[in-house]
Design goal:
Helix 13 crosses helix 16. This protein is α+β, with helices and mostly antiparallel strands.
């Protein structure tokens, strides 16, 4: 018996709506798939690096040079997103999120092998604190993770994970909530539900197009559109020119290091540029932030200056100096961190020999334009 099935006649408007619907749905799936692949790649790189540091047959031959050597070799192979500092972040990502191992082993078991040897599981924090790895990979981009791994306290990190997933926050929103101490405010708040509702009402929602425009995704896919510029690329370009600019000024500057790694309490930090000043007989540390000025930037720089004062300053050297450069649109802010020096004459001598704030500001403004 033949059955006739009644179908709704397709109008032109329905045709347009159907195509739009299919395009949106599959675009979301595609961007999620790319994001998950990128996140897993970076986690796996962190895992391989950690395993090599612990059990590599020739690890002793690299030591402190490992990340420099690895970044240079991978650049020769045209592997994107594996610069010096990024490799450190991948290792930190692996250590902060060991639970992702479950997802990787289920999907790509062969990727967990190095020279045929299965990797050992990393010790994890309490299972009660962990967010399911499937949720992490589905709802968070690697740009989210890069901000989360900067949070040392596991409970605080999990709090922002849950809130970010629950509120579907953009990366910019996550950064803003961390900066405005949402975790701490929630702890002190008597009505946590009301606070969460206020935050949710004002939050910027994470949309598929944010993933599409993510510089990490472009780099991962080998795409180089002119309109997309990673913040780190801006910093690198400015630091290149700033280094030349400082040396051209004369004043006794001698270049010493770029992205100088220092170990503070077992945590590695990086100073953007380090000079030694022959006339002042001191180190000059420069930090560049492609951002508005924030008080924590002064604290960070002063920490580096204090570390140099205690660990690097040689007999006969004067106290080190820090210069903080903050940029935003068409203006620049320059701050000197003089390591708590009370001697006004000494400070005045430094200010005479170092580049004037107006001079550096003018240079940064011209470069940003």
């Amino acid at each position: 018996m033949n059955r006739s099935v009644k179908t709704k006649q397709l109008t032109f408007d329905h045709l347009v709506q159907s195509i739009c619907f299919v395009n949106e749905k599959l675009s979301v799936q595609a961007t999620k798939a790319v994001n998950i692949s990128l996140t897993l790649r970076n986690w796996l790189i962190g895992m391989y690096v950690t395993e090599f540091e612990l059990h590599g047959a020739d690890r002793a031959g690299y030591g402190e040079r490992l990340f420099n050597e690895l970044a240079e070799r991978l650049a020769q192979h045209k592997i994107s997103g594996c610069r010096f500092r990024q490799l450190y972040n991948y290792r930190a990502f692996y250590r902060a999120y060991p639970q992702i191992l479950r997802t990787v082993s289920a999907k790509s078991r062969d990727l967990l092998l190095i020279i045929g040897k299965p990797l050992k599981k990393l010790q994890t924090v309490s299972a009660k604190l962990m967010t399911a790895p499937e949720r992490l990979l589905t709802y968070l981009s690697y740009s989210h993770f890069e901000m989360l791994i900067e949070i040392d306290e596991p409970l605080k990190r999990v709090f922002y994970e849950h809130e970010c997933i629950r509120g579907n926050w953009s990366v910019r929103e996550l950064k803003r909530q961390i900066a405005t101490l949402y975790y701490e405010r929630s702890g002190f708040s008597k009505n946590k539900g009301k606070l969460a509702a206020l935050v949710s009402k004002k939050a910027e929602i994470y949309k598929p197009e944010f993933v599409i425009r993510d510089p990490y995704v472009f780099e991962f896919l080998g795409l180089k559109p002119k309109e997309v510029v990673n913040e780190s690329q801006i910093e690198d370009a400015l630091l290149d020119r700033l280094q030349d600019f400082i040396l051209e000024l004369g004043h006794g500057f001698c270049f010493e290091a770029r992205q100088q790694r220092i170990n503070i309490g077992g945590e590695y930090c990086f100073v953007d540029i380090v000079f030694y000043h022959r006339i002042l007989k001191c180190h000059v540390l420069i930090e560049l932030k492609v951002d508005d000025f924030k008080h924590e930037y002064i604290g960070q720089l002063n920490t580096y200056v204090s570390w140099y004062r205690k660990n690097v300053r040689a007999r006969g050297d004067n106290l080190p100096v820090g210069i903080l450069l903050c940029t935003h649109k068409n203006h620049a802010m320059v701050e000197y961190a003089l390591a708590g020096m009370d001697n006004r004459l000494f400070v005045k001598k430094y200010q005479l020999e170092l580049p004037k704030k107006e001079e550096i500001s003018k240079f940064l403004e011209s470069q940003l334009k």
